[in-house]
Design brief:
Layout lengths: L8 E2 L5 E13 L7 H11 L7 H15 L7 E7 L1 H8 L6 E10 L7 H4 L13 H5 L1 H4 L5 E6 L5 E8 L7 E2 L4 H18 L4 E6 L6 E7 L17
Parallel strand pairs: 1-7
Antiparallel strand pairs: 1-2, 2-3, 2-4, 5-6, 8-9
Helix pairs in contact: 1-2
Length: 236
Amino acid sequence: VVPTNRGRILDATGQTLAVDVPAKDLMVYPSKVQDPRQVASYIAQKLGYQLKHKKAFKAEVKLLESRLTVSHVVQARVLPQLDPAVAAEIMSAHPPGLFTVDSVRRDYPSGKLASQLIGYVDSNNSGTLGAGIENEYNNVLGGHPGEQLEVRGPGGVPLSTVTLRRAQQGRDVQLTIDRSIQQKVQSVLDATVSRTGAHNATALVLDPRNGSILAMATAPGYENNKVHELSPKQFD
């Protein structure tokens, strides 16, 4: 599958609220990994896991090891959507059996701003299992991925590549939300919740001339760039 860039989500003035950025998928030829546990430990350390935090480190190593030893496949994905710098750090020692392929990940430049409205994508960078605008307009934003057939020889050596379907980039979606107004409203709500101890607060700002929603904010919020690291309770 050849990934395609999702369209951007823009505010009323054209400022970017969501956009795809370059990433790397870490891949493996399982048959070429001689010591999966050692390689998994190496990757975990490059990801920032520390030996002194034994529980978290062991859990990550166990997960990575299972992905490095997938049976009955020529290649498998170990980690999706890595920051290119992190991927380069992992590959700096040229670990046998590992390689990277180009990918994309969703980035939300405004962080927590309008996160509940914008929503998020799933681990495949699709809005199918996501939320908010990302989910509601997934058929517009998503585009269509392409397909390539890769012919390999003995040992997984690439011989040729045939394009079966070209990738089509997604289209942009522009909201009536004004980023500057959204920021002011969010600031007021955050301060209100902090001052009063309220469980949450919500506000809408409409343009009286036409009913357009200029801001839609809720506090407390969450960080869309880290949404997949949150527990269900943190969405309450």
